[in-house]
Each structure stands twice: as C-alpha cells, then as structure tokens.
Structure prediction request, 1215 residues.
Amino acid sequence: MDDCADISLTVNGERVTRRVRARTNLVDFLRDDLALTGSHVGCEHGVCGACTVRVDGRITRGCLMLAVQADGATVETIEGRSDGGHLRDLQQEFHQRNALQCGFCTAGMLLTADELLSQSASLTREGVREHLSGNFCRCTGYQPIIDAIMAVAEKRGIAR
Amino acid sequence: MLAEHGADARILAGGQSLMPVLNLRLANPAVLVDINPVAEMAGISVDQSTVRIGALTRYRDIQDSPIIRQHLGLIADALPFVAHAAIRNRGTIGGSLATADPAAEMPACCLALDARMILESTRGQRTVPADGFFRSTFETALEPDELLTKIEFPIAGPDWRHAFAEFSRRHGDFAIVGAAARARLNARRFADIRVVMFGVADRPLRIDAAEKALLSAANLKEGIAAAQATLAKALEPPSDNQTSSEARLHLARVLLGRALAQFDDAVD
Amino acid sequence: MTQSTLPQPIGASLARPRARRILEGRGRYTDDIVLPRMAHAVFVRSPHPHARLVSIDAEAAKQGEGVIRVITGKEVAEHTQSYSAVHELFAGMRAPRQWPMVVDVARFQGEPVVAVVADTRAHAEDAAELVVIEWEPLDAVSDGRFGMTEDAPVIHAELGSNIAYQGTVATGDVDAAVSKSEHVIGGEFRFGRHTGVALEPRSIVADYQAADRALTVHQSHQSPSQQQDIYSRLLGLDENKVRVNTPDVGGAFGIKQQLYGDELATCILSKIVNRPVKFVADRVESLSTDIHARDHNVRARLAVDRDGRFTGLDVDDCFGVGAYSQYPRSSIGEGSHVLRLSGAAYALEAYRSQLTMVLQNKNLVGHYRSVGHPIAVAVTESLVDQAARKLGIDPLEIRRRNYIPDNAYPYKSHGGFVFDALSQHACLEKFAKLVRYDERRAEQEALRKSGIYRGIGIASFVELSGTGPEYYGKGGARVSAQDGVHVKLEPSGKVRCFPSVSDQGQGTDNAIGQVVAAVLGIPFDDVSVISGDSENAPYGGGAWASRGAAMGGEAAYRAAEALRDNVLLVAASILQARPSDLAIRNGAIVNAADGTERMTIAETARIGYFRQDLLPPDLQPEFSVVRHYVPRRQPFVISNGIQGSYVEVDVETGFVTLLEHVVVHDAGTLINPMIAEGQIRGGVVQGIGAALYEEILYGDAGELTTGTLADYLVPMSFEMPDILVDHVNVPLAGSILGAKGVGEAGTAGSSAAVLNAVNDALAPLGALITQIPMTPERILRALGRVP
Prediction:
C-alpha cells in the first residue's frame, strides 16, 4: 500500500502541495511532512483526542483521516489557531488556572473547547464535562480545564 | 471499483470505524475506496411520507437538522450517545450501519424506525428493510460489490412517541446494553410498539415477546414488568472483558424498564 | 521556619512559564525531535507469555522496502552487560539476570525479540510483519499465589523458585492480640493490575557518535542523570561522553523512571547502524510493556477491642511483579510500603506484615504513582470502616480514637519508621468541617429511606516520599537521592537555573524558580529554569518520590543563598558598605535596614563580568554557584492526609456516581499552592481510575486482552467529580523550606476512599466488596443481583 497521490490543501492559511503515501494519516502528515508537531499522537485509534485538528471548520481526529482525504480541504492545527489569535482567552485562562501539566492533551483540549464555545448559546459545567469527555487528560484531573472553559464562557456571557 | 475488487476493497466513508482497524494493522485491504467526494450521497430530505438520509451524511449534520428533530426524534435522542463531538463531525450514518457493530446506536434506531436501506451496485439498486439488513457481528446484507447509498424512514404520525436509553461505562463508550423503542398511542394506551435492544446479541434485536407483553398489559407498570420478564428467554447476551452474559442480561432487564418508563407521561 | 516567614514568591500560585509555548502548540516532546539521517526502530515482540525461542527467519523482512537492518536480541546482547536489580535492604531478595531483548526464552508477552530498523516507521512495521519466529510455548505462571507454590513452573531456573522475596515486619504479638480481642475483622483484598497510561507513549531518540564513542539520548524520562549512569555502565561508554536529554515529557507518573529493554536496545541499534535511531511505543505496546503496578492479593485482619481500640493488624501480601525485577530500583517498592505502612496512621501495639514477592510470566511491575500506598491504605481503611460498622461507631470517631496521639511524637511506628509530628487530628477536624459531615450523614440516611444509596468513604493515609540515601544507596541501587541546582547570574541581571530535578508537567521548574527568585531577591519573571538535560544539569535524582519541590527546592535555596552572598560581596565592595548591611529586593541592591535602593543587581553583574578593574585585586566575583542537597535526617519524608468520597450507587445497575471528593493534606510549606493542588487532583483521579475502571486483563493463554484504550478504561471528564482540596501546613522539620512531597498524595488515598464509599452505600443491603476495580458487574454480584 505505498501508492502515492498529490494533494493540495490549505494548512494554517498557507497553500501546501505535497506528494503523500496513500496510507499516511492526517496527523502523521502534519507532524512528519509539515513539521507541525503541535498535534500529538496518543493512541492511533481515535479514543484519546490528542490528535485533534480542525478540518473545514470542524474538529476532527487527525489519526482517523488519511492525508489524501484532506486534498482541497482547509486544515487548521493548534499552531495556526493560536497564531491567528483565535484561542487567546482560552489560553489565558488555561495558563492562569494551571489547566495543563504535561501539556500533551492541551492542543486537543483547546481546539475542542474552542468549538464548543463557538457553537453554544448556553453552557453548564456538566455540558462542558460532557463535550470534553472524548479528550483524555492524565495529569490535571480535568477540573481546572472545566474551570478555564467556564471562565471563558462567563466572559462571553454564555455561562449558566 | 467495488465490482472490480470485491472483498479486497473497503469503503472509506467517515473513517471513524475503519481507520482504527487500519491503524492497528488488523486489516490490510488492497484497495480503499474513498466515497467522501460523492456529494450526492450526503444530505437529508423529506416529503409527505418519507425522510431520506444520504448514507454519507455526517452525524453532526443529522444532529443539527430540524427535519430529524421533528420527524425522527428517536435518532435525535440517540445521537448524543454516539462517541464524541470530533467523531460525530466526521462519522457518517452509513458508516455505522455498514459496520454493524452490535453495540452501536444507529442500527438499533433504524430497526425501531422500520428503515429501508437502499443498496446500489453496477448491477442495479435494491432495497433491504432494516429487519434483514443486520445479519451478525460486523455482517450485513451488503454484497461485496454493493454500496449503501441512502436510508429511507417512513414518517410516523403525531401519535407516535419514542424512547431511547443505554448503559455504558463512560459517556460516549459503546453501550453495554441499549434500547430504542417507539410506540403509537391511542387514548393513553399502546396501540403499536417497536422494542429494539442492542448490545444484547450479535445484531440489534426486535423483542417480539416484549412488544406483545406491552400491548396486552393492563397498564404501563405491569407492561414493563412483563416485558422485562420476556428477556430471560428472548436473549442470550454475549460476554466480553467487561461484562459477563448473566450481568448483561440483568442490565438489559433494568435498561428496558428504564427506557419504557420514558413513556410514563403518555401512557397509563 | 513557617510558610509566612519565607519570602515571596514562595507560597504564590504563579502560573508556569513552561506552559506558554505548549499552549501555542510549541511543545517539544521526544517524537518531535528529528535528527539528520534518523532511522526508525520497531520491535517484534513475543506473543507468548513463556516460550523458548527456536528460530528466527528474517530474510523476507530484510528485503522489505526501506529496511536498513534486522537485529536479533542475541546480537543486541553482545553490546551490553546484563543487569539485575536486587535491593540489599531486603535481605534475601533475588533477581534474575536480564538482557534488553529475548536471547533464548521469552518470559512475558511483549518482550522484544527482533528489532527492525528502517527509513520510516511504517516501513519498519511492514517488515516486522514479515519476520517469522518459531516458538516452543512453555507452561506459564500467571496467578501470584499459584506462582508461590511448588506446583508452579519455575520461570528462572537460576533462582530455583518464583519467589523473589519473602519478608516479615512485626511488632508485638499480633496472634495474641487477635485471640484476646473482642472483634476481629478480616478479609481478602484483590487489587487489579493496572498501569500509568501517560498520554505521551515511551519515546527515545538515540544518537551514537562512533568517532567520539559518545551517546546522546533524547527520551521521555524522569531521570536524565540516572539514565546517563545506566547507559554508560551497561554499554561500556565513558560517563562524560553520555548525554541524556529529557525534553518536554507528556506524563510520566513513575512509568518513565526505569530502564526499559527496548530503549536500551535502541541505543545499541544506533551504534550498530551508525545513525540516530528513534523508537516510539504505540499505545498497544505501551499498555503491554510500560511497567504495570498494583498486582496484589492481600489477606488481612484487624483486631479491635470492645471500645473500638485497634489492638493488632495482621497483613499477608502476595505481590506479583512480572517476569523480572525492574531496574535499577528493583520491584520491591510497592511490597515494601505495604509491609511497613499498613495501619501506619494508627497506634497499634501489635503488628505483623508478611510479603511474598512473586515472579510471573507477565509484564514487569514497577513504581507507579504512590507506589504501594494505595494498597496499604485501602486494606487498612476498609478494615477500619468495617470495624466501625460492626461496632456501631462513627467512622470518623473510630479514627479519632485510634490515630497516633498528637503528643506521641517522635513516634516509632509499628512498621519501623520514626514519625516526626504528623497532623492527623488537625486534618481530620478540618476535613469534617469541610465536608459538612453531619449534614451529609443525615442526607444519606434520609435518602436511604427512598431507596437511594449514597455512601461516604473516608481514607486516612500516612505517606512516605523524598526517599533518602539510606534506602537506595544503602540498598545497593545506583539511585541518587541527592539533587543539585546550578544558579547563574547573567550580566543583565537575569538568572538561569539548572536543577537536577526535572519537570514532566508537575511544576517542579516553577518551584525552583520561585525559591531562587525569593531567596535571591529578584522578580520571578527574571528567572529561567532549564531542566532535564544531564549535560547541563548537576548530577541528581531527577523526578520521583515527590522530591522535586522538597529536595530540589532545598538545593535551590542553598544555591540562591550562596549566589546572593556572592553578589552582595561585590556590591558591598562597589558601594563601600558591609555585605551584612545590604540586601537584594526586587532586583535592586538596597540598604537592609530601610530599603533604600543603592544600585541594581544588573549593574553589579555588569561590573562583576566586565569591569573587574573597578574591584579590589583580590576580589574574584563568583556569579555562578552550584549547591547540592541530600536529606539526612530521615530515610523518608513523612506526611499525612485524609480523603473523603461521596458517592451514589445505582443498586440496580452497579454504576457508581461520584458526587464529590475532598482532600485535606499536610505537605508542609506549599511553594505554589495552585501547582500543589493540581498534583493532588490529578493524583486523586488516577486513584479513582484504579477504584472503578482500570484493569490490565490477561486471557487464559496469558495474552493481554486490554491492549487498547477502548478496552483499558481510563477516567474521562464526564464521570469525574469536582475535588475540594484544603491544607494543613506543618513544615518539614530540619529543612529550610519545610516542603514535603505532594505529587503522590492524591493517589495514596483516593481508591481507598471510593472503595469505602461504595461499601458504605451498600452496607444496608449486606454487600461488601474487597476487590478493585469495582466494575458494575462486581457490584451487582456483591449485591447478589447476578447469579
């Protein structure tokens, strides 16, 4: 299965053209071919959420998509979302509340929280816990992450 | 492509079920057919009698759809239990149905909703009712050269109510046991009912005996008890790492009771 | 020195500078490191728990696309010494010889056998599938208690049996106490084997330079100095030519504290192929070969007199440790803590604890967060709660009656330790208020009447951390119990520190930086902490036994003090003052008496580095200082705490809802309370995982059946409670900072608290569980709901 294909996509606002092996998954492509190592690999079976990226505006497990499938797509990783200033308030709250320790889950947490906040009119703590339940964190016990997201929700006037 | 490669080819839709298998090297298909670009296979439409969902429609879009909320409330209620947001953003209903995991929510809902599967191949198109589509664990009526393109759901009248429940170890996990039920009510009594359970066998099961028990019971409370009592004969649940067959049967009984109790405010 | 007299920012909940770049996606973990011509290694592993290696056919593999070399365990063994880990404090402990990979017999499923080195990981995995190995399966030992018997096959012929250690600790006459006491509460406890599941799997990049006979290793590990020592000794390299760099580490928890055969082999692979080689374990490999923990079967009894006073505790622990003893510390750690810490919170006249450490054909057991405490605490606290129920005494009250009295310190524990003043009573009273205990009990009572079963579970714990040299050094293990910090003043007045303690996210860098800023008298933001690289850090222990802040902080304190004195010496010379009249505050040299600013530290540094002509000829400015610290007063730092879990059990399904969790802990001085609380919360959730979800399961043929995160269940956010944390602060005696360890406290008591809570909920129904994890099925069976 070492067939190759040429793909052309937008990654963090930049046009990228590459030849990829058909079997390479998206997160490996981003990390190995584009050196965007901010997205992490924790399980390769879609359970831990460390590989979360945004594809065409929606969060996606980077390990469950092939790079060839991203041909023509708009992909954003933590580096792009962060540099574009989209995560500033979340990053601030995460930092002040120690909502990351080893940091390996953090990119996934931020992107998932970002999507949740942008698509919610009203958020409860329980709702945040539910939405984040697909992102594994071993270090923090989750509480400061929930606190940080609720603090941003507060600032945006959507906290209940 | 399927006609050419048959069993050597696998369909890649949302990838949420297939990619883990490939990543773990549990399968090594010679050909992957990526159907994501087939735009006409995604989308939701409705007319007087039928809701049609393209097989490639993402869970997220089904969840966001007012048509589904209005006409297929059972599916709307089941979707929050399907994995997690990132999976639902990409996973498709067709993928879940074609994968046919015995503990999955969508196959059970389709069975409870009397859905019809539209299968297409170079040889033509055929329709298979949900009852008959799910054969066994990871096995459906799909021939190697066939593609599930669409699912049709008959629109139920306003006198139909539904109930959904499942037990899982953690939110978003595959169910240990689950139940998808819908019923037509007449003067606060069950006039017609579908009771489907999943996680209890190698495919979703309609529990005929439970349905009969509910239809003939004097009231909901007795009906639920009678329905629960049918499970010991009706089910021979599987065992796995987490849960033995006996415990699964017990949980199925409890779950059925709780799912049916959701009809409490509509039935005497 | 109490916390209030230590200068700021000691005690401040400052955010971690190290977190900033990670928040922006610029973490630098081992797999992010790419070196020129770097190759990738994949290991073929034994599918059998016990089998003789008959033959290896790698011909097809060698032809694989991108394959550079295929190397067997036998070849790898030629490049290294073998190793075995005994611990001489435990007389009679035996450990088998171990090679990094299988040479002739595989003794656990997952043991590496063949290494494939290729240009990409995918190509290496493809080729690995083509390696054909013939095995002769042998009878395997799985269960610990069976492994102890004479019927069991002997795993290592050289040892003659599977018993690696047997030992007893006894005080008084426990048999007499049992026979004369009014009540004896006994039970058999089973603890599910589980593992750390750091989100970042084990990762290593080894880079051997033949010309210099030098080895540089980048790896996800807790102890760079230790690995430098191990690699140089085993591989026969000069120690000053071995560098181990541990960059950002995605979680460790004790899993990344020891030597792994596949990691040592990766270093050898680099030497063989003469280019850098990377190995990253995938999740299946992690679950099967990261060290496991907590595989104990414990029989215990608590003797209690009619007034509810505990008269004796008798513990028998059968501890399965897998196929080898983990290196370098040996696998005795968990067993040792059960041996000596069971019942530690209580004043017992009679105590006996017996440990049998048994080898099995399973993956190795090592040190996972809180090492043994969860077992000792769960056994003890469950018996205590059962005693309370039997005698009709409130569980808090029975503990009050039996704690070591506040006036009994220093106290010689029945396990053989000397405890400085513990604060158990203070923690308990604070706890009772915090959880509104009486209210909760009333609530529980009322809800029971409507068929809702809630439980309150309490777990007291005495905790050992900060291991000193009397334990490892004296035990013959080359584990350094001392740490050092190098503090360097730059000409601009900013400071760099290089501690030998390392940071995997627990915030040790912050502790170091805050101590240095506080003692030196400069803003926290002017201090950079660079850690994790054996090439620039002093030699030290690294991160384990919750020592980072406590031990590293102590060294940082001393180093900063010395640097401050050196700076003031130069400043005094410039200002024509006496050093004792000056101080440094907020980066300025001031009059100690009234705070008048005289000059800046930057100005002093500039002169000291560039204008020595302005200084007296005999004054040599020393703006770079290293100080080390080793704890000598006690073999361990001893602290205490109490945890409470409030649960609701759905008795029809066996599902447990965690309503609330509370911890009151005494960690002495808290250098950074927010970081300390983060450690406690994270630790609590790991213990909850052990109590309800996590279990490594092997099938009948010894094959791992929990190889993915879909089978091995870890706590996710939805099911976890909010965790309330409060503190009692009794500074550690004999240290300047007074900080005790805090990293493991959460895990020490949380599974016991949840176990007790569930049992408290089920008590009215006559059910009792003494096995964790408490799966819904196990709860249903205890309730008799499932035949």
Q: What stands out?
A: Chain C has three domains: 3-27+482-629, 33-138+199-252+256-289, 292-469+633-782. The first helix of chain C runs from residue 18 to 23.
